[in-house]
Amino acid sequence: MDDRDIDDIDVVEVTVDGRPIRAKAGQSLGAALVTNGITAWRATRVGGRPRGLFCGIGVCFDCLITVDDERGQRACCVQVADGMRVETGLEP
Known about the structure:
This is 2Fe-2S ferredoxin-type domain-containing protein. It holds the Pfam family Fer2_4. By secondary structure, the protein is mainly beta. It has one helix and seven strands, in the order E-E-H-E-E-E-E-E. The protein has a single domain, classed as Ubiquitin-like (UB roll) (Roll), CATH 3.10.20.440. The chain is about 10% helix and about 30% strand.
């Protein structure tokens, strides 16, 4: 991400699979991931197809992710917070 894309005043830092990303305060985790070029963060049980943000409103459950050791969080419904630790279901 280009640093000019975000005002430094409204920035939070989130760690995704051990890698820091920057996000806009108030943004959903799903939006922050996509903004940082992360479009898939889990795989289907059958076939291993990539999944990420789909509906963006919490209905489809395609965006499930682990946030601060709490599994099964919908990335589209979780607001980013400074220091948040996120683990995807994909190998780095």
